[in-house]
Amino acid sequence: MGKITIAIDGYSSTGKSTIAKKLAKALDYIYVDTGAMYRAVTLYALRNNYVGTTEDIPALIQDLPNLALKFVPNKSLGMSEMHLNGENVEREIRAMEVSRNVSRVSTIPEVRHKLVEMQQNMAGKEGLVMDGRDIGTVVFPNAELKIYMTASPNARATRRYKELLDKGEQVSFEEVLENVQKRDFIDSTREISPLRKADDAIAFDNSDMGLEEQFERVYDFALRII
Ligand code: C5P
């Protein structure tokens, strides 16, 4: 079949990006982490006090045309990093403060409109693996392969907690679990493009699966189509 588009959606911290990245590398495809884009807009909104302790969504919407988001490849790390108006914000967008506010920002229709359009423009002749919440339902409803990843809230919070500790963030497990559950609730109940499984997506529960086994399975799904 040749190069295809692969959409990977699911709740937060299901390990979507780890698998998506590995898959893109194995297939020599482009990988796009759409969560990084929503996180970058949220960081911008936090820095300008448009969300957080005070809220000014109309001001954020007004600023959207001036917001430049770019994935810049970092050859030594073998990955792309998110740049916001020319500044590398890859580390900052993963902080807890951004996680606390990102689902709120992601409910804003104007934000979604801008980011979905950018994501759709990333499809080209090259193969694409994109992960997020609405890739198989809204961004690429015709993607050749759609995977919907799930895992228990506990398994997900445990993974996320370890990740944050490794990065030196001071958080408690309870706080991480609460954030994961709160984001899942907002993401799956919001009015515009809520997180849901596309009818033609393969449901994939990885609560009790190691990374290698997950990868082998997903890689196999892709090879069957390509
Ligand atoms: O994937 P990640 O957990 O980094 O995404 C952060 C947040 O961005 C999600 O909780 C969700 O609110 C939002 N998001 C979204 N649509 C996407 C990707 C992420 O609404 N396609």
Mean pLDDT figure: 95
What percent strand?
Answer: 15-25%
CATH top level?
A: Alpha Beta
- Biggest sheet strand order reads 2-6-1-7-8
Element pattern in H and E: EHEHHEEEHHEHEHHEH
Radius of gyration: 17 Å
What is the total tally of β strands? 8
Distance between the termini: 5 Å
Overall 3D shape: globular
Distinct helical segment count? 9
Q: How does the helix and strand content classify structurally?
A: alpha/beta
Major pleated sheet: 5 strands, parallel
CATH fold field value: Rossmann fold
CATH superfamily: P-loop containing nucleotide triphosphate hydrolases
Return the CATH architecture: 3-Layer(aba) Sandwich
Helix content: 40-55%
Work out the count of structural domains.
1
Unreliable spans are none
The unique ligands bound to this protein are:
cytidine-5'-monophosphate
Organism: Flagellimonas spongiicola
Subcellular location: Cytoplasm
Catalytic activity: dCMP + ATP = dCDP + ADP; CMP + ATP = CDP + ADP
Main location: cytoplasm
Summarize it.
The chain is an alpha/beta fold and 226 residues long.
Characterization of this structure:
With 226 residues, this protein is α/β, with parallel strands linked by helices. It has a single domain (5-225), classed as Rossmann fold. The protein has nine helices and eight strands. It has helices spanning 16-27, 34-47, 57-63, 96-105, 109-120, 135-139, 153-166, 173-189, 211-225; strands spanning 5-10, 30-33, 69-74, 79-84, 87-88, 128-132, 145-150, 202-205. Strands 2-6-1-7-8 form a five-stranded parallel beta sheet. Strands 3-4-5 form a three-stranded antiparallel beta sheet, with helices on one face. Helix 2 packs across helix 4 (96-105) and helix 4 runs parallel beside helix 8 (173-189). The protein is globular. The relative contact order is 0.22. The mean pLDDT is 95. The protein binds cytidine-5'-monophosphate. Cytidine-5'-monophosphate (C5P) binds next to helix 2, helix 4 and helix 8.
